[in-house]
Amino acid sequence: MPDRKTQIVICGGGAGGLELARRLGARYGRKRHDIILVERNRTHIWKPLLHEVATGALDANLDEVGYRSHCHRWGYRFFHGTFAGIDREARQVILAPMLDEDGRELVGEHRIRYDYLVVAIGSVTNDFGTPGVREHCLFLDDRVQADRFRERLLNHCLRVSRKMLMGATADETVSVTIVGGGATGVELAAELFNAAAGLRYYGLEVFDESRLKVTLVEAGPRILPALPEKLADAARGELEALGVRVITGTKVVAAERGAILVESGERIEGDLLVWATGVKGSPILCGIGGLQTTPNCQLVVKDTLQTTRDDRIFAMGDCAFFKPDDSDRPIPPRAQAAHQMADTVFHNLVGLMEGKPLRPFVYRDRGSLVSLSRYSTVGSLMGNLVGGRMAIEGRLARIMYLSLYRLHLFGIHGWLKGLALIAVGHVNAVIRPRLKLH
């Protein structure tokens, strides 16, 4: 009988998981190894771009990556399924039954054996158990949710436009209330005004940004806590200049149909309610396979990114909890962290299979950038040339923000196709509509 192939299963096709699958497939191919990527979606979209998908500023059909074509190109296998558990004794990944849109079972529970397992399923928005949030608020965790937001936004814009055409005298507006002053909430608030300004060119002649009412609610003392206070204040000034009502130091206690309730008793209404208050691990991870997890359902890992109770299982990205010895805070849930973790996991998987030493994960903070659509970009970078953290604003910051996505393209496609896709993106920016309205 032929030797059994070494099987590496990667659960999660986000930024880190997809990059890792590409690199392992490119190195080992299918001859003696079987690299399997398990993902519940059929296509990949870079999560930091979801706020642009939600407003129609980005056509996800142009930027998404099909897993089946990608795996054929890079020598790994794609398995469409939802990660549901781990049988550590049998070394098997458990996948949930696959259902069609009517709830009928297409494929029953399935198991895939592994020699090495990488869990990279990302995170979900943390609602902190706030009553009514799951029932009445929209989230931006994946493309399906972003598409749902865009559809509802366009419907409300059409409603207001029709009323104005019929001679309505009242001030008709579309109100959007966003809870969470982190990068997602701030970027979405700014992008909404860009979208509203463009709708007049696509049949809604009487609708513009003056018909948009956006409120951003943050429980902390300021928005964008990951940025230095000076830059966070600059971002707040930009938002308020656009017309965003920014409320800080205010905790949301409940959500109901058409409104959120805050501690002061104020009821903040909104045609659309968006919850963007931070992330946590998927509930499926809590105690999974007897592995050590945090109260936020993240897998605790060692400095090699192996789980603390099983050296054959790695975790990376938002679903992994790692606190360096020289830090009092864990690695933050950022795309740059997932990218760096993918590099370490790749090196350590190669080390385990080829008898080479493993290396510890060292997080290098490349800084934070927040895009305020076409209006501004603010952020900070670690600049070795200036000996520390360097604040950048304006056009330079916008260039750096776009470069983060380009690095992601190189990570999942390699340099040649990555450069080609960047060139295609410039062409699409000229010939494609400004907004995706379908």
Order of strands in the sheet with the most strands? Answer: 5-2-1-11-23-22
The number of helices is 10
CATH topology of the largest domain: FAD/NAD(P)-binding domain
The whole-angstrom Rg is: 23 Å
By DSSP, the count of extended strands is: 27
- Distance between the first and last residues' Cα: 54 Å
Largest sheet: 6 strands, mixed
Structural summary, described in words:
The chain has 438 residues and is an alpha/beta fold. 33% of the residues lie in helices and 25% in strands. The protein is built from 10 helices and 27 strands. It has helices at 15-28, 50-55, 60-63, 67-74, 133-136, 143-165, 183-198, 229-242, 335-354, 395-431, and strands at 6-11, 33-39, 43-44, 65-66, 77-80, 83-87, 92-95, 98-99, 105-107, 110-113, 116-119, 123-125, 174-179, 212-217, 245-247, 252-256, 259-262, 267-269, 272-275, 279-281, 299-300, 306-307, 310-315, 320-321, 368-372, 376-383, 388-393. The chain has a 6-stranded mixed sheet. Strand 6 (83-87) and strand 7 form a beta hairpin. Helix 1 (15-28) crosses helix 10 (395-431). It is globular and about 75 Å long. The model is unreliable at 383-387 and 430-438 (pLDDT under 50).
